[in-house]
Amino acid sequence: MVSGILSRMISWFFKFGFWLRRPEVLIFAPAVALCSFWFLGEESLILLALLLPTVVVVTWQRPPTPEAARLPDVLEGLSLRSQIIGSLDKILQDAPISGRSSACFVLQFDDSDRLLTRFGRAAQVEVLARSAERICAVLRAGDVVARLEGGGFAVALAPVRRLELEALVQLASRLQSAVSVPVNLDASKLYVTCSIGFCHSVNAPDLSGASLLNAAQIAADEARRRGPNAIRAYSADMARSRAIRESLRADLERALEEGQIRPHFQPQTETFSGEITGFEALARWYHPEKGLIPPAEFLPLIEDAGMEDRLGEVILYHALMALAAWDKAGLKIPTVAVNFSAQELRNPRLAERLKWELDRFDLEPKRLSVEILETVVAETANDVVVANIAALARMGCGIDLDDFGTGHASITALRRFAVRRIKIDRSFITRLDSDRDQQKMVSAILSMAERLGLATLAEGVETPGEHEMLAQLGCSHIQGFGIARPMPLDETMDWIPRHRGHLSKVKSLAAHR
Ligand code: C2E
Ligand code: CA
Ligand code: CA
Question: Domain 73-234 - what CATH class?
Fold first, then answer.
């Protein structure tokens, strides 16, 4: 009898070991002693007297886990990567005999970085815990859920006889719906979305759990790239294009390191006087084999590789160096404009980094124009982006709203972001001199800008006719092939005096008329 009680107690100990680690459990010691005496007699008291100190020593000897690092029970209860690989290994080994198949899912949150930077670790853990509960509720007994290191989850389905692609997609979207129910955090609600990749066991590149999980991970990465809220099934093409992307990433890293990527500069001038007010820095890749590659071709790769910050650093450095070089040559160029991607604007240290770079070149902040796409300003609800733009404006940098007319920035947004100038998108400027509708549109934009006290710049001015019409309509600045194409820094050194020489010739001709 004693051995029966003992073995039951040991099994409870292992089952509820987590709770035994809490000191509050000692409150129940007298009650447990009384009950065991009542039901099991004196023997049990002796056993308890022996067992209780042992339990306390064994369970409490480890230093207590710091509160911040302890995960909620629902997360602690999930498998880890190695365990789900073990489960998948077993499923794959049994498959030929049982004739059943399975699938592995990987679920990744679309904006996990934002969640962490904006709401902190506690909120991230809360989202993970609630998501884990909901994921488990959607699945069936026998399915295995694991938490992954980067904050995602993996699921191994219990093997079944027939597993169609459609059923897998439906399950993925049920998981997505479960995760997208808002999570209550203090007084607010957190909205999260996730992207899911999966691989059917018959499509695993190798007959191993690790390979099946890796295939689902590749599909999940692809889904996240196409996300938010995307679902992708693994295909062999994905693995190939991932390998290509990885090699391109290595190429890009080298290109940025070795100075193969640097800007060309396109002048911005006053519409009436033709005076140069600045240059816009536009990235170019001097590829050792493929020659000059325009940004439209390599910016998506930079985005895919998450290297926007690095590109931004390189272009900013070259742009400020150009200003310093023009100053040194006595060329008096007032400003240089740099394009900032949405990703760069999400960096909480952007303003600090910019200030440091300006100080390093001993340049005043007002000499840097920050170009931000209208779409970014229109769509952002991100506090870091708002704070960054405000900090740059406060520092004295000019904020130019790029591609104006292609997004839907509200007038409130123009005010909130302290926009100094709007850059009217090229699509409104093409054939401006001959197209009445274009003229109406540009007039409307210009009068709105005037009422709001904003300067204006027309992009993509190609012909003297367009230039002339912009002067008539009252646009203050222009930029485009009609004045000059973007050029390398050393070419600007000749172009600037040539342009100025041309201007003074025109002026003296006008004076003599
Ligand atoms: P954007 O900022 O709107 O830059 C203007 C683009 O229009 C440039 O293309 C420029 O070469 C082109 N352009 C200028 N004048 C004319 C014209 O008269 N006619 C025509 N057809 N095109 C003209 P580019 O250099 O190919 O850059 C394309 C886009 O790539 C830029 O558009 C900008 O959004 C992005 N980009 C370029 N450099 C950077 C960078 O360093 N960082 C970031 N984040 N984006 C960049
Ligand atoms: Ca621009
Ligand atoms: Ca533009």
Answer: alpha beta
Query: Residue 404: nearest ligand to its CA?
Result: 3
Count CB atoms within 10 A of the CB of residue 468: 13
Query: CA-to-CA distance for 124 and 111, rounded, in angstroms?
Result: 11
C-beta of 315 in contact with ligand 1 (< 6 A): yes
- 386: CA distance to ligand 1 center in Å? 24
- Ligand 1: which of 266, 339, 370, 467 to mutate, most ligand atoms within 8 Å of CB? 339
DSSP H helical ranges for 99-198? 112-138, 165-180
Answering whether pTM is above 0.90, one says no
Domain range 252-512, its CATH number among 3.20.20.450, 3.50.50.60, 3.40.50.2300, 3.10.20.30: 3.20.20.450
Nearest residue (by CA) to ligand 1, atom 30, is 295
On whether the CB atoms of residues 405 and 374 are closer than 8 A, the answer is yes
Q: What is the pLDDT of residues 442-495, one digit of tens each?
A: 999 999 999 999 999 999 999 999 999 999 999 999 999 999 999 999 999 999
Taking the domains of the chain in order of start, what are their residue ranges? 2-61, 73-234, 252-512
